[in-house]
Amino acid sequence: MALVPRKKKRKDPALSLVGDSPVGAVKFGEAGIFLVERRMGSSRRSFLTELARKKGFRVEEQMSESVTHVVSENNSGDEVLELLEKQNGICRTEFKAALVDITWFTESMGAGKPLQLENRHRLQDALKILAENAELSENEGRYLAFTRASSVLKSLPYNVTKMDDLKGIPNLGDHSRKVIEEILEGGTCNEVQNLIQNERYQTLMKFTSIFGVGVKTADKWFREGLRTLNELRASKIKFTKQQEAGLLYYEDLILPVTKVEADLIQQIIEEAVHRFLPSAVITLTGGFRRGKEYGHDVDFLITHREEGREEGLISKVISWMTAQGIILYDDTMDNSYHKWKNKESEIFDRFAKCFSIFKLQKMVHNLEPSGTCSHGSLATNETRGIRLAGHAGSSQHLTASAAKDKDWKAVRVDLVVVPFGQYAYALLGWTGSRLFERDLRRYAKHFGHMMLNSHSLFDNKQNKFLLAATEEEIFAHLGLDYIPPQERNA
């Protein structure tokens, strides 16, 4: 939720048409979108432009008077206006378009129409930026405080125009309230403005967006004087295999994954898994199970009703898909729950799993989700238009020029193999969101005297594990009403 002073408040008329359409068939001519490339990047901007046009939105390549919505990512309103002044000669006092965050764009894509603007769509989401910085500084307390405050504001059914609107609202600490008050009164927050310009924040945000790079590694590289991806690639750093893959496929991996892509990847996985275990169950989890239309990666749980049948499955599936040219990178680990069962942990699980990067043809963007593909289609290297473009080794030395012309996209995919007796707990844990799971486990510990993780629920009072075949049964054990996945996004 971005807060703006009341004098800048503006409402756009709601538009109602929905549905996809061929590029060029504009359905929503009243709304003209201009995507700001700064911090978004040219590849991501091109992808989002193509996506919006296919859905009937009017996207302008240049800023003009016909633009009604200027969409930006990780920029403040002042930064965008300054950029438009320099590049397009736009006068601030005569600027009429709405400055909106990328959340308005993605939610509009999901709804199939331009959404009416609300405060939460306005630049800037100061609390989110402060939460990101706290995470980069490994200050968990501040991260949770700002994240909870941001989630609360986004969930409010009304626009916040004055501090009195927040009376009685929980999870808003003094620091968060001070930031909100500053934005309501002046339109910006100096702390956030300074942070956005901070070199460490900018560099660590970029480095931690590389697959395989955490905060400690990113900070180490920053302290060594590195600032850009090109400097990283030219350095003598000995990268892990995961980091090498993250740098090699960086431009693809920072692009959002669509629900259409996730559904088609599921078809590939179902066929591969069913070659070795025909009755296995494959479930799409993560943000897509929570109803989101876009994500950073795709997560799947794999199980079988006859517990034990799933053992050894992951290595067979990955080996076969690698031979088919589907896998660009994989990191496979065995189930180690038996070694860890009696040790308390609320974050990590010990299932057999594989963190991988799939090679997916870009023509997937033209397809709609469909039913499960028939067995045998992958053997001919084709699944409803997804051609498997060569073997994994053929792309290991991808050049910058080749990357622009390639007809495939690298996509992060996590496969988790779960014993059926633990499936309900794994499904709850891998559905998220991160904050929802953290608070649910915290509630179980402090109010229920139980330990909840992705494997089980242990009741300390009864000194036993509580069995559950469904998520509903887990909520019942905790004494809570069931919360469906679509309501776990905060």
Strand count, sense and barrel status of the largest sheet are: 5 strands, mixed
Q: Per the principal axes of the C-alpha atoms, what is the gross shape? A: globular
Give the low-pLDDT segments.
1-22, 364-403
CATH class assignment of the largest domain: Alpha Beta
Helix coverage percent: 25-40%
Radius of gyration: 24 Å
Strand content: 5-15%
Derived structural class: alpha/beta
Count the strands?
16
Strand order of the largest sheet: 6-8-13-10-9
Kindly report how far apart the N and C termini lie.
12 Å
The CATH homologous superfamily name of the largest domain equals Beta Polymerase, domain 2
What is the count of distinct domains?
Answer: 5
- The CATH architecture term of the largest domain is 2-Layer Sandwich
Kindly identify the CATH topology of the largest domain.
Beta Polymerase, domain 2
Helix run count = 20
Roughly what is the average pLDDT, rounded to an integer? Answer: 82
Tell me the layout of helices and strands:
Blueprint: E1 28-35, H1 42-54, E2 57-59, E3 69-72, H2 77-88, E4 98-101, H3 102-111, H4 126-136, H5 140-155, H6 174-186, H7 190-197, H8 199-207, H9 215-223, H10 229-234, H11 241-248, H12 250-253, E5 257-258, H13 259-276, E6 281-284, H14 286-289, E7 294-295, E8 298-303, H15 313-323, E9 327-333, H16 337-340, E10 352-361, E11 382-383, E12 386-387, H17 400-405, E13 408-417, H18 423-431, H19 434-447, E14 450-452, E15 457-459, E16 464-465, H20 471-477
Parallel strand pairs: 1-2, 1-3, 3-4, 8-13
Antiparallel strand pairs: 5-7, 6-8, 9-10, 10-13, 11-12, 14-15, 15-16
